[in-house]
Amino acid sequence: MILSEGKLKRMKALANDRGVIAAAAMDQRGSLQKSLASARGVSSNDVTPEMMSEFKTIVTKVLTPHASAILLDPEFGIPAAAARSKNAGLLLAYELSGYDNTQPGRLPDLLPHVSCKRLIDWGADACKVLLYYTPFDEEPINDIKHAFIERIGAECETNDLPFFLEFVGYDPKGGDEKGVEFAKLKPEVVKGAMKEFSKPEYKVDVLKVEVPINAEYVEGSSVYKGQKAYSRAEALAHFREAAAIASKPFIYLSAGVSNAQFTESLA
How far apart are CA 129 and CA 43, in angstroms? Predict the structure, then answer.
């Protein structure tokens, strides 16, 4: 892939001396609000924007001396961005937290008061967007998502801002996404998304992807739950196939699983 001079400069700001992007993520919003509320024994409504911002600032001060970059959100994370260590670059989220649950397809939206230019004005070295995506959803739904990402890619290119696309798979039929049946489907969900968004029309620079298997259903894994979706050899093959499909750099995200499960997946 070829990066413009502006994008390359910003990508280097996100990496360490070895060229590795070792970023910490603190762009959680709704889930973080619920966690803070639970820890304080209050309702989510009692966790104010000021509390969210204060928490993100504390975490940023603690983690960024040990990270090459941090991912934050413009809603609560701008004060935290200013408090990061000088060695750390900045990724800012562009999407609204969650998705539209009033209609099928988990359709995304952007923060209404944000643009790529404003992300840069706030010090961003990259734009991050999260998209719920499965190649098995209805074509009109995925067509909306494809156009959505095309627009963001074009905006990032115009502003010389690296574009990190994070996608999370789901079952359009509403099945149990932690169950064995979805585990069997997950490799094709992940590989299908990687293949689609590696296409040049989306102008994505880095893919943030889920691991293509669920380690709890890998026979013999340390977190095996007793139901087999794949053997260890089959799981390794899914990793290799996913890597071969992507023509863009990619990094794995934990997607909310336990540390033990994510560590086993990477192992």
Answer: 28
